[in-house]
Specification:
This protein is α/β, with parallel strands linked by helices. It has 2 domains: about 60 residues; about 190 residues, Rossmann fold (3-Layer(aba) Sandwich), CATH 3.40.50.150. It contains 10 helices and 9 strands. Helix 8 links the parallel strand 4 and strand 5. Helix 1 runs parallel beside helix 4.
Length: about 280
């Protein structure tokens, strides 16, 4: 069987299972099976498949037909031009989260805090983009922190980052101050979970929903982050598209200024940011 034939069969199986964009997923799975970069796949499609490769590809396609995310099958996901290790213990990095990265990079920072760091994709990306900065990532999950540390090590960031286990700011020293605090907290309301894509069943539920109205993390972060921000320090959070007004209100109640909502590439509200006044005492 040639690579082209294997690809055709994979696309047909994924299409029959109603997988969105079956051609894209089939190509990613075939490239992973062959151990090559996806961009090189076209060059090897006329060649015969190596021994056992067709069987390995078939097993991956079957798992994808069961709606397991491609990142879990390949073990990695591209985010902001870099590859990150991804497992079922962490949230799969989404393209829309790159909006948070873009907004964070609009002003300089040297001390960074990422709350609920998960895979570490936000923290590591920002540190990689800002060689003079150092950062801290917190997460309630020890398993997630292990993945984040592995990603930091792969990117050569281990000396500029530390990870602490705890809920939101509980793991942060009372004396720590940061120029920038970022977070992509669980913002899906519990009532919305049954209507989401089946792939989300393979991701950690704690990273998706607060089992309430989807706003509890923002209440905590807004109330507690101000005391850990340096004067003129920034707080930025990713939000669900309908949550902008509520989250801006939480920021205002906490005393933040210059509160803004930023949209993603699809024009949906995606990030809320605020700045600590230099006159704030705490």
């Amino acid at each position: 069987m040639t690579g082209a034939q294997a690809l055709s069969r994979a696309v047909a199986r994924l299409k029959a299972a109603a997988i969105p964009d079956p051609s894209r997923d089939a190509r990613r799975l075939l490239a992973h099976t062959l151990g090559i970069a996806p961009g090189r796949l076209t060059l090897v499609l006329p060649d015969n498949m190596p021994p056992g490769a067709a069987e390995r590809l078939g097993a991956l396609v079957a798992r994808r037909c069961a709606r397991e995310p491609v990142s879990h099958l390949t073990g990695s996901r591209a985010f902001y031009g870099r590859e990150f290790i991804v497992t079922p213990e962490v949230l799969d990095p989404r393209p829309e989260t790159e909006t948070l990265i873009e907004q964070a990079l609009t002003a300089p920072f040297t001390r960074l805090l990422d709350l609920g760091t998960g895979s570490g994709c936000i923290l590591c990306t920002l540190l990689a983009e800002c060689p003079g900065a150092s950062g801290t990532g917190t997460d309630l999950s020890a398993a997630a922190l292990e993945i984040a540390l592995r990603n930091a090590q792969r990117l050569g960031l281990a000396k500029r980052v530390r990870f602490e286990q705890g809920a939101w700011l509980e793991a942060v020293s009372p004396d720590d101050r940061f120029d920038l605090i970022v977070s992509n907290p669980p913002y899906i309301a519990a009532a919305e979970m049954p209507g989401l894509a089946p792939e989300l069943a393979h991701e950690p539920r704690i990273a998706l929903t607060d089992e309430g109205d989807g706003l509890s993390a923002y209440r905590i972060i807004a109330a507690q982050a101000v005391r850990h921000l340096a004067p003129r320090g920034r707080l930025m959070v990713e939000i669900g598209p309908t949550q902008g007004d509520r989250v801006r209100a939480f920021f205002a109640q906490a005393g933040l200024e210059m509160i803004e909502t930023h949209t993603d590439l699809d024009g949906r509200n995606r990030v809320v940011s605020g700045v600590k006044s230099p006159h704030t005492l705490c």
